[in-house]
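To the wet lab folks,

You asked to see what we're planning to order before we commit. Fair enough. Below is the target structure as tokens, and below that is the sequence we designed to fit it. If anything looks off to you, flag it before the synthesis order goes out.
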């Protein structure tokens, strides 16, 4: 899936504005964000440990005092710059929700009315706890009534329309080979553990044992005896383990070409002959769909074998478990507590759940995010922020374009195609031009789980109706209140939601060097995703197409391999090595994004600027790299760090702070790092791509 979207003028109109200084009109009273370290996530020299030699450990040099004095909050599995900003932003969102929930009246169907009633339903903890399993009982009764595999497939179709994926995944989105058309996708699924390897590898044995206990506990809460629960747990784990054996690993799920397998609908029975496709498509409302992109054909072939081998009662047991597991966080009381105990405490090491209001707010963001977003933007986003951001984006894009034109290792034909793609980039900042209309969605103030299911059903129907039609390129795949940024390959666009345009990433109070080292590098990161090891496989129109000459592709692969090997040598904990192939796309984006942002910052300075001028004792070059490192400050609980390394596409933050700078000659110059320093990389070992 792509990485995000919003409207702004065509960036090519701004390519001539290379000398514009983003903060030229701002008078700097100090070199760091005002406010105490406790309440401001912005760049600050107080976070540094100046006793550390930057050539020995640049991460500690930039963040050592912060790391030594910052505990991880009890309701978090990690804590860092992103998390600090998310916490501040979550508090703003929660205040908006509480204020909206107190409204006596609101126009029916308005964002305020939807948010008010949804939030009220989630905060009625007494009612939720008292109901227990009752809200889920109608769906469980439907499972009980199933009397054939055909009926089971029909039930899976009905459940899918409520957002319940049981044995495999489904969604609709731009066709990878023709991004102008919405198509239907089928994917592997049915697992309760994070990856297939959690079922097989010895290092995950304790997690698997805890998962077994978790299944038993939830089944007992649902009314089974301990003996019945253990018996059903054995069936569930046998099915999940078999499905895991047919599933791809996280690194394999990065291969876009291998995952694009369009199948005419009529050929699905040949792929998985023992699954009643007709019954599933009819109840899912997908009978008219003529083509499905099957991302993992081997998984569906394996699923068909399992259906043939196992009795219907096993599949009913498995389906009940999938429904119970999905609903448990919203059933309150012991169900919610048990769900937290495994999914957060065991997998992530988090000691305590987040406050109820924050948990409810997260659900609203997921289910009716643009209704919340409309309220958020009205209160917390100004057009001045958009204008400042446009100038930054303009400068970083211009710098990337110049580097692309100067790339010598590509053939001229491939470079021309790359430039055509670059010049077709779209930029979206802040929020959608028009927020989603939730007409027809019924939200009740006294039906928490029902609201969750109806919101999912409403969104499924919205997406189902788009299949076969044109892609809405104005649509956003992220809410304005999300602290993140994305590159959307199918739309060939970079997107920056309103919430990330705040300190420590974007701070109009500070000098350009700090802003380019943070949000400037994030802009460069998202641009670079269009040309990373997977993004490069997509053309200017957003279509999966090989536009590379053989020589250029080989040259790219060799350069990327240098970076992958660097990352694979890093050890997050004893015996826990990073996977440079799994993180390659993000590492390339960091590497190139930082280099492009540095060039953009350097070009933005006026001719009269003194490169030796300091703020708080640091030059602009030093503050640029310090800002980058502070943006990635992160401390992890051991469980969360392990899961990040095992399945996350991003390296942990403490490594992101140094991987890219070590490949940049200006970094060594800025801090006078000599070849003898542990952090130094000889020029022959540095990765240089764009």
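Sequence we intend to order:
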């Amino acid at each position: 899936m792509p990485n995000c979207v919003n409207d702004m003028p065509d960036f090519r109109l701004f390519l001539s504005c290379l000398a514009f200084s983003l903060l030229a009109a701002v008078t700097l009273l100090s070199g760091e964000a005002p406010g105490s370290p406790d309440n401001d996530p912005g760049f600050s020299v107080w976070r540094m440990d100046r006793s550390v030699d930057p050539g020995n450990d640049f991460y500690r040099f930039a963040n050592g005092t912060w790391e030594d004095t910052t505990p991880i909050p009890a309701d978090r599995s990690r804590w860092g710059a992103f998390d600090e900003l998310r916490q501040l932003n979550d508090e703003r969102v929660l205040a908006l929700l509480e204020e909206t929930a107190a409204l006596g009246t609101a126009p029916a169907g308005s964002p305020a009315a939807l948010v008010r009633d949804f939030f009220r339903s989630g905060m009625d903890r007494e009612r939720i706890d008292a109901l227990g399993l009752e809200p889920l009982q109608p769906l469980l009764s439907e499972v009980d009534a199933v009397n054939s595999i055909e009926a089971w497939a029909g039930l899976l179709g009905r459940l899918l329309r409520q957002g319940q994926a049981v044995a495999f995944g489904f969604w609709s989105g731009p066709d990878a080979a023709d991004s102008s058309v919405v198509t239907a996708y089928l994917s592997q699924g049915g697992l309760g553990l994070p990856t297939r390897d959690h079922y097989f590898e010895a290092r995950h044995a304790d997690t698997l044992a805890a998962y077994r206990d978790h299944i038993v506990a939830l089944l007992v809460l649902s009314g089974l005896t301990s003996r019945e629960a253990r018996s059903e747990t054995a069936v569930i784990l046998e099915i999940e383990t078999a499905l895991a054996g047919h599933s791809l690993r996280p690194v394999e799920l990065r291969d876009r070409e291998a995952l694009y397998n369009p199948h005419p609908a009529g050929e699905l029975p040949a792929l998985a002959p023992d699954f009643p496709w007709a019954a599933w498509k009819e109840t899912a409302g997908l009978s008219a769909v003529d083509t499905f992109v099957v991302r993992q054909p081997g998984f569906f072939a394996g699923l068909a074998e399992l259906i043939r081998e196992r009795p219907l009662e096993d599949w009913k047991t498995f389906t009940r478990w999938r429904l119970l597991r999905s609903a448990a966080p919203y059933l309150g009381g012991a169900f919610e507590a048990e769900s937290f105990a495994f999914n957060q405490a065991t997998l992530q090491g988090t000691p305590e759940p987040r406050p109820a209001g924050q948990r409810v707010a997260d659900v609203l963001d997921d289910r009716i995010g643009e209704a919340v977003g409309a309220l958020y933007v009205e209160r917390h986003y100004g057009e001045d922020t958009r204008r400042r951001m446009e100038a930054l984006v303009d400068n970083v894009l211009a710098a990337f374009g110049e580097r692309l034109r100067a790339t010598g290792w590509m053939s001229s034909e491939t470079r021309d195609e790359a430039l055509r793609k670059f010049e077709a980039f779209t930029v979206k900042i802040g929020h959608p031009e028009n927020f989603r209309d939730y007409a027809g969605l019924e939200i009740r103030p006294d039906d928490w789980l029902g609201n969750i299911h109806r919101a999912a059903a409403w969104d499924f129907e919205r997406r189902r109706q788009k299949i076969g039609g044109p892609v809405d390129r104005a649509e956003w795949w992220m809410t304005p209140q999300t602290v993140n940024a994305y590159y959307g390959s199918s739309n060939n666009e970079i997107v920056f939601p309103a919430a990330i345009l705040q300190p420590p990433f974007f701070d109009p109070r500070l000098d350009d060097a700090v802003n380019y080292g943070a949000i400037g590098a994030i802009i460069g990161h998202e641009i670079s995703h269009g040309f990373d090891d997977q993004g490069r496989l997509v053309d200017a129109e957003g279509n999966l197409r090989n536009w590379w000459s053989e020589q250029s592709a080989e040259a790219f692969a060799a350069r990327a391999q240098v970076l992958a090997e660097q990352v694979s040598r890093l050890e997050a904990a004893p015996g826990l090595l990073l996977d440079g192939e799994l993180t390659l796309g993000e590492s390339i984006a960091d590497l190139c994004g930082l280099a492009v942002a540095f060039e953009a910052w350097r070009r933005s300075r006026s001719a009269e600027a003194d490169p030796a001028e300091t703020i708080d004792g640091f030059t602009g070059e030093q503050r640029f790299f310090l800002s980058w490192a502070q943006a990635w400050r992160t401390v992890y609980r051991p469980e969360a760090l392990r899961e990040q390394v095992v399945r996350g596409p991003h390296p942990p933050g403490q490594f992101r702070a140094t991987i890219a700078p070590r490949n940049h000659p200006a970094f060594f110059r800025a801090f006078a790092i000599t070849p003898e320093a542990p952090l130094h990389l000889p020029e022959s070992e540095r990765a240089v791509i764009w």
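Structural context that might help your review: The longest strand covers residues 168-174. Residues 383-405 form the longest helix (23 residues).

Thanks,
Computational group
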